[in-house]
User: What shape does this take?
Amino acid sequence: MLVLFESEIWPHIILISKIKGAKIILINARMPQNKVKKYKLLKFFIKMIDKILTKSQEDTKNFLKIDKNLKIKTVGNLKLYQGDATENKRNEKKKYIVFGSVRKREAEDIVWVTNKLKNIINKECIIIPRHPSKEWEKISQKYDVKVVNELGVLKSYLKQSYLAFIGGSLKQGYGGHNIVEPLSFKIPVLFGQYVDNIKEIARVIVKNKAGFMVKNKEELLEKIILLCKNEKFYNQTVENIEKTLSKGKEIFEKYVKEIEKYIQ
Assistant: This one.
């Protein structure tokens, strides 16, 4: 069996697998409207896929524009599944506001927010850049903000965080980063409006009120203050996160059942 993920449609691998008699399944399949024309060139190979399991109805409709006879089914976004998500307990002490995966063009806005928060909330603000560099060290010294200028540390700080902002989303051109990871620690996630690469997952998170999209630094500051000052609102958001993660587990189980149908 060959299991492909999202848009990993590799013609040579599909052809070899089909020649060898293997079943081919594409899971968490995505097909943005602006990619339909491009993937029509791969129609011959896409038709070889035994089952396409998509993450949304929109993706299903776009795949059917390539060929209306595809064997396809909408299952849900697998990225919502975060295992048991038990690493962080709701009653653990959470002392940080984390600004993770921040990009250089976002630095000025994030520094502005962290400095505003210093006299408003009793949480320590931590900036963790997407790409550590000497430039971030200069920013830390110049503006008196704490920057953890290292790779691979975001997860350890999320475990101790009250909420998180995930960068690559406040300015155009980055497309957004992993906004689901904070949810696995049952903490609210904030992100900007420029999330072209994660548009579907952002839509689900906002719809479920498990996280919040902000348009600018002012909205980001306002939302952080609200979450820190309004305990009822914060706790309701955490409940929404738990419900969202529960749905993610259901989606995972649906994928397993679909794949099992093709295991001999």
In short: The CA atoms of residues 195 and 202 lie 7 Å apart. The first strand starts at residue 2 and ends at 5. The beta strands are 2-5, 24-29, 51-54, 72-74, 96-102, 124-129, 146-147, 161-166, 189-192, 211-214.
